[in-house]
């Protein structure tokens, strides 16, 4: 099993709650490692973000120079073919096939892989393979490759199954519906962290 700390990332869903800067800062203070600001809304709201939180926020763009200073560059899966790497490499990207993961070694720090479970935020969207099969694939790839980007599971992850994601060999979990469809996103994060802490004990 991976000895690095298990990362927890949030992803905005475009709802007012997910774009509320005080909520994002509370989540990052409360144990969230990164927040992916995935929205078509104007990024102007991010000007309210305290400077210390900016390196924990991922912004999507096709070139690094489009990402304001201090924020981290996320490159969408669909944009990798047209991306401009003249001004540096992205911090993170996303994949939908684990065969792409080793190819990104040395190019990004984090790779989002989805979906793992039936989506909370997109009804009807779910995995093509069971978590057991995905676990076998991860194990085989880790045996064949070193210095892989950290692998972040995404899709339907919540308190009830987050420990399974870690046990399957992922380096972290991304949370969207588990945060924004809960009555209180900060409380939802704490429940997830408590589950992982109990499993550590």
From TrEMBL:
GO terms for biological process: thiamine biosynthetic process. Gene3D superfamilies: Aldolase class I. Residues 84-179 form the Thiamine phosphate synthase/TenI domain. This is Thiamine monophosphate synthase. The lineage of its organism: Bacteria, Pseudomonadati, Bacteroidota, Cytophagia, Cytophagales. InterPro entries: Aldolase_TIM, ThiamineP_synth_sf, ThiamineP_synth_TenI. Pfam families: TMP-TENI. It comes from Spirosoma linguale (strain ATCC 33905 / DSM 74 / LMG 10896 / Claus 1).
